[in-house]
Specification:
Shape: elongated
Number of domains: 1
Number of helices: 3
Order of helices and strands: HEEHH
Mean pLDDT: 87
Strand order of the largest sheet: 1-2
Largest sheet: 2 strands, antiparallel
Radius of gyration: 21 Å
Length: 112
């Protein structure tokens, strides 16, 4: 199996992760952190004063793009695997199966 589509999505995710690291480094340079005492519980709380609010939105979008590409890589690899090993299951499992528990996943894959 070559997993060309999955590999391409992983490379794209790496690009987004590099952009994310750059954005975070720039954000850290303009970040002012102070330590305060939480009046209710008495524990220390670190507060960050981030002046560039637009950067937060961009970081969220870039992180979302990276996660999306990694999820797509799983889907592409899964479809290639199913196509070769169990083509009859392709209509039911065209995306990487994600279930809340192992038992739920096994039940879905067995068709019960």
């Amino acid at each position: 199996m070559e997993f060309k589509g999955a590999r391409a999505k992983i490379e794209r995710a790496k690009h987004h992760i590099a952009r994310l690291n750059t954005r975070i480094e720039l954000l850290e340079q303009g970040n002012v952190a102070t330590v305060e005492i939480n009046p209710e519980f008495g524990n220390e709380v670190i507060k960050h004063d981030i002046s560039d609010r637009e950067a937060i939105s961009k970081i969220a979008l870039i992180a979302g793009d990276a996660v999306h590409n990694l999820k797509c890589a799983l889907d592409y690899a899964w479809v290639e695997t199913i196509t070769k090993l169990a083509p009859h299951a392709l209509p039911n499992f065209a995306k990487f199966p994600a279930y809340p528990t192992r038992d739920a996943l096994e039940t879905a894959l067995r068709g019960h």
